[in-house]
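Workshop exercise sheet. Pairs work together: one partner reads the sequence aloud, the other fills in the structure field after running the prediction. Swap roles for the next sheet.
Pair: D.N. / O.F.
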Amino acid sequence: MKRWLGKAETALGNHSDRLNAINIFPVPDGDTGTNLYLTIRAATRSLQETAPDEASLQNDVGAVLAKAGQAAMEQARGNSGTLFSVFLCAAAEPLSGHTRLTATLLAAALNRAQIRAWSALSDPVPGTMLSVMEAAARAAAAVDATQNGNDSNQALGLVLDAAVEAALDAVVRTEAQLDALQAAHVVDAGGVGMLLILDCLRSAVLGGELQNELLDGLHGYDVQDPHIHADLPDDDGVEVMCTVSLSPLDAATLRQRLDEVGDSVIMSQVERSPDAEGRYRWRVHAHVLDSETALRMIRSLGEPTDVSVSELALPRDPDPLAADQLAADARSLDG
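Structure field:
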C-alpha cells in the first residue's frame, strides 16, 4: 500500500500539467492534476512515520490504507481529490485485518470504493472518474469470479491487469459521455488520473514498470496539445470545503440545502464511528455562487473546521513554475 501511494504521488506529480490542461468538467478550472497530486501527497505523508503505538499498521493492509485515506480526506483538494479520498477510505474497509492483498480482496475493495464514491456525490454523472472506478471494479469482479477463490499472486495479477485495461477503456469512453468533453475533443482529466493511480497499484503489486503506453492516443493528452480549459469561459462562483460534525439527519439536511444553492456537492464521512453525541465527522465540498450563504447553512447545523474557499475562475493558465515544482517533487520521490 505504501509503495502504491508513493508511486501514485510520483506519477501524478509528473502528469499534473497535462491533467490540468484537459480539466474542463465539471468546471474548466484547470486544477485536477494539482488537486489529485496534493491529495495523494497528504496520504503518503501520513504513512512516512509510524508511531510506536501504531506498529500494528505494519501487518494490516486495511489499517494502512484507512490511515492514508483519512489523511487524504482531511486535506482533500477539489472534486477529484475528494472523490479519490472517498475511494481510499472505502477500499480500506474490506481489507481490514488482512496482511496481504488477494484477487478476491482487491475485487471487494474496488467495488466498495466505487459504490461509496458514486454515493458521495449528490448528482453523479457518467463520463468522469466515477465511471473509471466502476469499470475497473466490474472487470476485477468478473475475473475474480473465474478464479474460484484462488489467492495466489498470479490470480491477483490477472485481476489487476483486467482492472487497468477496463479503466483505460472507460477513460476513452468519457469523451462521448459528456457534451463538454466531446465539444473540446478531450477525455476526462479525473478519469485519466484514476487510470494512472490504478496502473500504479498494478506496478506496485506486480513489481513491473508503469505502462506509459496507456496514455498514447488519449485525446488532448499529447505534450504539444494546448491547455483546453484556458479557452473556455470563466465559471462564476466558488468552491467551498470544510469538515463538520453532524448527526445523520443533519447531514441529510445539509446535503439537501447545498443542492438547492449549488452543485458538485460531495459529502463523505471522515470516520466511520460517531462521537459521544452520535455525530459523525463529514468532509463537505460544494460549488456555490456565494460562500457566505453556504457557510451559514453549515454553521446552522455544526461548527465547520478546515474551511477553504477558492474562486472557480482563478486557476487559468497554469503557473509554469508551480508545475515545474510539482514535477521536481515527484522526480525526487522517484529517486
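Discussion prompt: The beta strands are 238-246, 262-269, 280-288, 305-311. What would you look at next?
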